[in-house]
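User: Predict the complex.
Assistant: Input components as received:
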Amino acid sequence: MAADSAPESASATSSRSSRKTGATGGRRRKAKQHAAGVKAVAAAAGVSLGTVSNVLNRPEVVSPVTRAKVEAAMASLGFVRNESARQLRAGSSRILAYLMLDAGNPFFTDVAKGVEEAARAAGLSVFLCNSNEDADREADYLDLLEQQRVQGILITPIDQNSSRLRKLPARGTPVVVVDRAIDDGEHCSVAVNDILGGELAIAHLLELGHDRIAYVGGPNTIGQVIDRRDGARRALRKAGKPPENLIELTTGALTVAEGRGAGQRLAGLPATRRPTAAFCANDLLALGLLQQCVSLGLRVPEDLAIVGYDDIEFAAAAAVPLTSVRQPRQLLGRTAAELLLDESSNPDHEHQRVTFTPELVVRTSTRGTL
Amino acid sequence: MAADSAPESASATSSRSSRKTGATGGRRRKAKQHAAGVKAVAAAAGVSLGTVSNVLNRPEVVSPVTRAKVEAAMASLGFVRNESARQLRAGSSRILAYLMLDAGNPFFTDVAKGVEEAARAAGLSVFLCNSNEDADREADYLDLLEQQRVQGILITPIDQNSSRLRKLPARGTPVVVVDRAIDDGEHCSVAVNDILGGELAIAHLLELGHDRIAYVGGPNTIGQVIDRRDGARRALRKAGKPPENLIELTTGALTVAEGRGAGQRLAGLPATRRPTAAFCANDLLALGLLQQCVSLGLRVPEDLAIVGYDDIEFAAAAAVPLTSVRQPRQLLGRTAAELLLDESSNPDHEHQRVTFTPELVVRTSTRGTL
DNA sequence: CTGAGTTGCTGAAAGGTTTCAAGAAGATTG
DNA sequence: CAATCTTCTTGAAACCTTTCAGCAACTCAG
């Protein structure tokens, strides 16, 4: 993907470690010494395999003295349980995965925090994977996670109609869709009403008297981008404005860099044809747009009002504090994880579609006089 | 950890999915139907187990016609390779893990991008784990990853002297320390010279005529916090100033919220005693500090100059564009992953300590006239 | 002292894959 | 046509745990 936006300083010093230990010379003690297994522990402790396993899995069933012996043996041998073998035999994994759309977007890392919180409360661990808005990577990760037989997958998908996605639950891997509503009877989903969010944003701008408004977002394969735009259109319709008043500026991704690019395009338009306001599909775009426009001499909000989406922590700290549509980030993640846990443990689980309501947070980028 | 900084909108709509499919009533078709394994595929394709395995692992060795039969059988049975079994037998994992200090910090997600880039180039996948500056979570994840027998671990540790960390390589799990220099002969490490970084920041402020300077960072167990402070002290010493001129404001974590707290404390000081400049251990702190100080009426940089660290993308887009110390983020991750790959594949691997050089990026937050 | 009930431990089977020595069939050479 | 190579395929062993029926030893009531 894109290199860092600014050139990286690359002067490096490298030093081989001196290895004071090295005595005999070139020979390396590689060879991955056979890690001690339950068998070795059992031998060392003078008990059977089954007993070692009991110490591991049902400590209450083994006598304190035996347990102590076994634990001592484990410690002295540096025993590390082989999770592959455990999982193969026991058939269950203690791991949840969250496949994120963009790990660089603070919105998703906040969602991830909620996920982790709920998972930890249930004694599970979370692995994060980053599809980075790349469908191939998403597919690769889905395959990998299914092969790993993780307990379940949380995903903010690029394309929620992917066949891969739909096949997973039938094959035994529960999937919960996060930040997208979906109702195919195969998944639970937890979302925020993006159409309403788009509507809120545009209604706010219309109320401030803006007439020609840009919608900055893309690619149009991403559900969030589509819904927010549709919400925007709906707000225009309700206000009796023609749909052409929403000027679409399509971006290649939902990133700050793309936002800057859009800013460049927007600022390049003659003042008469330029929209007086921009609604961005997320805050990263909005921040990039804002930065570029300001540096090209546009005043925000006088020349261009800007509304973002997600209300990430950085939105309030921007050059011009950003009006944004807030979503309950951690709650989204927590709820999704709880649904997943229910699905994988409760035989009477029914798929649910939970929808939260977004909220407009008005700041200087639209109402400068504030 | 901290809840979202602002209350989350929590009105939710929940709807059970209608399950048009359900015919017989209450019975759920749970039961995790026995997933087809190599055995079933072999039977369906009329070949032996070994042949199926060959199709999977050495396709070139099996005749095209047989291969086609096997692949067809796989597809029709929905075969999904059981990675636990594969790994148990083959003894090797195709997974790398990056245990991050704070997934919410864009600096680390940029590092993660570099890691992933290098891993993908080598045909491996990356799982991200977030210790979130919590030592217990870090320990849990290390145990988990060792039990999973991942191919290797990249970590930005909370405490690089942890015994757990040091034991891993001897037991067969290579570990590369990222963003910390370490020279214990057990790990490779890839770092940026934080002492120099601190020095650059303070030298810059001294040059601008600042005399009383705050150092905002913490907790003091984190290596980066210590080194950057030490660099700051060194710069003062070199300039012949007494060390008391560096006023330490210790924070509980390296977050925006903590930065705001520090801003509150700083702005509360009487103007005569208040430092005229602040150097923050990272950009999140700096952004929080900036935001709070501005909202409390301090002018930046006139009343308070601010220098951050990391030069994350948001630094340039801040209320007052932030002077910051830039580090080669993706390069850091890429290099670390490459060292890890070398360690796990090259029998002649020697541990290395790679150090990059940081670079000061001056913006408005220190030199307003710019 | 007998019989039933507890408690703690054992040993073998099972889980799904990969590996590898060895065999079968077909192609090539002299 | 025999001998030698190649090319494919096979079947069983091995990887490390967990599970579970069963056994031994002990306790306790009658």
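The CA atoms of residues 138 and 360 of chain A lie 31 Å apart.
Let me know if you want any component modeled separately.
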